[in-house]
């Protein structure tokens, strides 16, 4: 179940840093890794797990780096992937960016972190907020050598002792991203909602929080099946949540980490009515010009408003002499990406706006590209969730009995939101 070694490689497969945890595999086995990756990619069957003789390579790619774990035995591959992603997250929180330069500049502290994150091939402690209490980027004098915080040996390893705030507050954000794909006939081919509940906790002591949502299973169990409820799928919780309590009575109970963290994520594979609908009429006049008429319509309630709407309309690579006319917002041509960008700062619900664009085309027509790229839309709608999820309560319990203010905010935004054109 354990890992033999962990390596970080550059884009050419050269080892930047490595740590041997068990000594049961030769460290030189990594020389086999990069040629095997290239072979798999050339054959079109790239895999994050590669087996070669007695070694198994499990890896993730982050920007231009490979983060690789080697194992000799049959290992828990889900645990390995989870550890590699956590390793990247810790390095990002320490160095802001994880790239070749930051690895080379910080190799001493990286070795310290790798020794804390794993022991003899078994993941140990991966909470960067606690690690930062005793592995710092400043040197320590011998007479004031740091002591590991008590959280390392606590049942609550993600929260330090003795946290104090003058004003106790919790900020809770429910953020939903809408993924949508619409074909050129206006039919929705694919739609889903990906949600996250994010918290910023500024609370003294060791508080316990309880969060109640309009969860369909809970409502059915308590005889409120007809109430407006949401059926959440693929729910993933932060390690602080008591899973046994959730399994028993659907209560989300937890002692929170200090500061900012993601409490849970979820997905709803449901039919979503497009929040911002785009109709496009494109008239191509061979060898002379192309004209666009774009209609944008907000299909949500009038009391809501979408902010910072950006509509990206693809245009031919050889277009020139752009002219625009719009009833609202600003339009600009981005020739480096071959798109028109229509920005609407504030888009109220139930409204419809029009934009016209005109481009000249050179006398020699460029080769017809294979299909037209889709129109992409970006937006953010505050105080609104497309799924209908609601925070029913957020209770804060702490032995000193202080009063804390919970603040709840809802945001719906675009995910991968595309509408194909003819």
TrEMBL record:
Pfam family, one: Clat_adaptor_s
Keywords, ordered alphabetically: Cytoplasmic vesicle, Golgi apparatus, Membrane, Phosphoprotein, Protein transport, Transport
Intracellular or extracellular location(s): Cytoplasmic vesicle, Clathrin-coated vesicle membrane; Golgi apparatus
Principal location: membrane
One Gene Ontology term from the biological process aspect of the record: vesicle-mediated transport
Membrane topology: Peripheral membrane protein
Domain of life: Eukaryota
Record InterPro entries: Adaptor_comp_med_subunit, AP2_Mu_C_sf, AP_mu_sigma_su, Clathrin_mu, Clathrin_mu_CS, Longin-like_dom_sf, MHD
Transport in keyword set: yes
GO cellular component, one term: clathrin adaptor complex
Function field: Subunit of clathrin-associated adaptor protein complex 1 that plays a role in protein sorting in the trans-Golgi network (TGN) and endosomes. The AP complexes mediate the recruitment of clathrin to membranes and the recognition of sorting signals within the cytosolic tails of transmembrane cargo molecules.
Family, similarity comment: Belongs to the adaptor complexes medium subunit family.
Protein name from the UniProt record: AP-1 complex subunit mu-1
Organism: Paramuricea clavata
């Amino acid at each position: 179940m354990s890992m033999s070694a962990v390596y970080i490689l550059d884009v050419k497969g050269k080892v930047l840093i490595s740590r041997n945890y068990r000594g049961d595999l030769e460290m030189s086995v990594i020389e086999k890794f990069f040629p095997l990756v290239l072979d798999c990619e050339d054959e079109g069957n790239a895999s994050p797990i590669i087996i070669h003789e007695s070694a198994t390579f499990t890896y993730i790619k982050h920007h231009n780096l490979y983060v690789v774990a080697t194992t000799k035995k049959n290992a828990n591959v889900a645990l390995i992937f989870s550890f590699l992603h956590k390793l990247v997250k810790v390095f990002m929180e320490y160095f802001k960016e994880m790239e070749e330069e930051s690895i080379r500049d910080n190799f001493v502290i990286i070795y310290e972190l790798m020794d804390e994150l794993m022991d003899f091939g078994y993941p140990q402690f991966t909470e960067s907020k606690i690690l930062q209490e005793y592995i710092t980027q400043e040197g320590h004098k011998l007479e004031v050598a740091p002591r590991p915080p008590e959280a390392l040996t606590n049942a609550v390893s993600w929260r330090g002792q003795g946290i104090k705030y003058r004003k106790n507050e919790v900020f809770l954000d429910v953020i939903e991203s809408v993924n949508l794909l619409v074909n050129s006939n206006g039919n929705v081919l694919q739609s889903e909602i990906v949600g996250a509940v994010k918290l910023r906790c500024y609370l003294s002591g060791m508080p316990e929080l309880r969060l109640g949502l309009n969860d369909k299973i809970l409502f059915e169990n308590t005889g409120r099946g007809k109430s407006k409820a949401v059926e959440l799928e693929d729910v993933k919780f932060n390690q602080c949540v008591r899973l046994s309590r959730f399994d028993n009575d659907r209560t989300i109970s937890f002692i929170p980490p200090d500061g900012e963290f993601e409490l849970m994520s979820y997905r709803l594979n449901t039919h979503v009515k497009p929040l911002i609908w785009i109709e496009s009429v494109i008239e191509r006049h061979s060898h002379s010009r192309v004209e666009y008429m774009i209609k944008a319509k907000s299909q949500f309630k009038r009391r809501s408003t979408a902010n910072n709407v950006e509509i990206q309309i693809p245009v031919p690579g050889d277009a020139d002499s752009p002219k625009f006319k719009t009833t609202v917002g600003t339009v600009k041509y981005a020739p480096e990406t071959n798109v028109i960008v229509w920005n609407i700062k504030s888009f109220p619900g139930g409204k419809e706006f029009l934009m016209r664009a005109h481009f000249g085309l050179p006398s020699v027509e460029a080769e017809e590209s294979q299909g037209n790229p889709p129109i992409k839309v970006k937006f953010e709608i505050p105080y609104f969730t497309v799924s209908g999820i609601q925070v029913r309560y957020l209770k804060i319990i702490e032995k000193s009995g202080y009063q804390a203010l919970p603040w709840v905010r809802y945001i719906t935004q675009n995910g991968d939101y595309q509408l194909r054109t003819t």
